[in-house]
Amino acid sequence: xxxxxxxxxxxxDAQKDAPKPxxxxxxxxELVKQLVLTGPEIxxxxxEAELLVGGKNYNTAIISQVPHIRTPQFRAIxxxxxxxxxxxxxxxxxxxxxxxxxxxxTTDWSNEEIxxxxxxxxxxxxxxxxxxxxESGKQKGTPIKLRTFVNNVVEGFATSPEGID
Length: 165
What we know:
Elements: H1 2-17, H2 28-31, E1 36-38, H3 39-45, H4 49-53, H5 55-63, E2 75-77, H6 79-88, E3 90-91, H7 93-105, H8 112-116, H9 120-138, E4 144-145, H10 146-158
Antiparallel strand pairs: 1-2, 3-4
Helix pairs in contact: 3-5, 7-9
């Protein structure tokens, strides 16, 4: 009886480790235009995919091709999606700056409860984002591309006499 169970378990493990049948993958020219890519699609693109999805996603895709190595199934967001977001999203810069400054300055960053909560910063950002969405609809002003806003913020840090990194 134990031998039968061992054989069944070995057969099950062999099925898990067996290479998956190849999925039909679009031509490389089409793949590099996609906003979301799977591991096999990243491998099909080749080394160029590292710039498209980043080193960790590229390496995970490569490792997933090695027999008997288990890797998580994943999807990678292409850098094209990020650039699309930066170029197509518009923000009211004055609303963003004023609300971020206000919320940041009213938060007691030395508070023990804040420092205990590893999720606090994520919650803080989402809370401020919700306020920005609400206020942006009420305020007048010319929205600018998110890319322009981010570039302006980065330039401000770079040229700040306070030496902010």
